[in-house]
Amino acid sequence: MLFSRPTFATSPQQNVWKRRSRKHCTASSLITSQVPGAVYQFLQRPDGSYCLSFCSNAIANYSGSARRKLREDASRLFAAIHPDDLDDTLASIEASARNLTTVHHEFRVRIR
After folding, report:
1. How many angstroms separate the CA atoms of 54 and 44, rounded?
2. Is residue 78 part of a domain?
3. How many separate domains does the chain show?
4. What is the pLDDT of residue 14?
């Protein structure tokens, strides 16, 4: 099971978030390296696109993409989700955004 808390920010807020995120990245990476599965945080940009403002090292194994790439664009992660699970996964993320709640959703990933 993968857990995520979506973050929605405007452009100036994104810049502040990125600076703060980098400070905590090393400590968070050490902690999340011990957690089974993947840990990540979605960020929805004002244009509606997604990126992962934080993602554990395990996410690279699941998505076949470098963490750095996923921080820029989450479409690579979405591309790795099994096609039968993608619509429900996106619906759970959108419901989370509307309700400002944590996503608790299981889905299959095609490992590359």
Report:
1. 13
2. yes
3. 1
4. 61
pLDDT one-digit tens code per residue, 73-86:
999 889 989 999 99
Full domain range(s) for residue 66 = 2-105
Name the nearest CA neighbour of 82 among 101, 102, 107.
Answer: 107
For residue 18, tell me if it sits in a domain: yes
For residue 58, the SS3 value is helix
Query: Could you tell me how far CA 91 lies from the centroid of its own chain?
Result: 15
Give the Cα-Cα-Cα angle 61, 66, 67 (nearest 5 degrees). Answer: 95
Q: In terms of DSSP bridges, do strands 7-8 and 40-44 run parallel, antiparallel, or are they unpaired?
A: parallel
Query: Token pair of 80, please?
Result: 């790795």
112: in domain: no
